[in-house]
User: Fold ATP phosphoribosyltransferase from Thalassotalea algicola.
Amino acid sequence: MTTETRLRIAMQKSGRLSEETQQLLKRCGLKLNVADRRLLAHVTNMPIDIMRVRSSDIPGLVMDGVCDLGIVGDNTLEETALERELLGEKSDYIKTTGLNFGGCRLSLAMPEEFEYTGIKSLNGLRFATTYPQLLKRFAQQSGIELDYCLLKGSVEVAPRVGLADGICDLVSTGATLEANGLKEVEVIYRSKASLIQSTSTMTDKKQEILDTLLPRIQGVMKAKE
Ligand code: PRT
Assistant:
């Protein structure tokens, strides 16, 4: 669990969000030893600790009160929240502020030759995805039945090897889809990175630190616009 007096922030250890998150914290004036490869690194000039973990672990760490704050993609956050809701597990968090990096969309994509005539033409098809809950919610809201198979990586090869009819995956430039002979047919969720906060761990002291940090984060984001 977290301490009473130091704010613990979870960030992605390595991957698409890690560089920008690190830059953001640096621009906020946090002095971090980047060579420090420990799981928990101390910020030397503020009572803050940084926990470097996998992106997919960040929502759970905040929701369970292991970390006070986390910087994570809305896609990962929403998928975890839906999964926890399904399992009846608690998810004590609030989204403190949106951040203007990590932009992408979760889309359904089909082989180029597929004749897409609207959402109904996807009825009964099977999609490979890392985001089954977001896919299921989309199917429910659209009034269609979709099947899925869970893949944690290389989702885009699934149709070619006969594992699925299409994919439900994150897209930013569209180059990966094109390289794999796939076309985007529906955007089901738009995502950016967000700062999230535990609702169960904040002490007065930690709130004070956040009150100093948050305007700096918002200032850095504004300067980037
Ligand atoms: O840390 P962990 O391993 O748990 O997470 P991860 O595997 O999701 O890490 P990573 O680094 O791939 O993604 C971290 C977060 O970055 C995601 O959760 C999104 O919020 C955000 N993000 C933004 C993206 C992309 N853009 C993106 N394009 N995450 C993944 N992609 C992948 C996509 O899955 C596909 O393989 O990039 C490919 C498509 O890119 P384009 O440019 O070819 O369309």
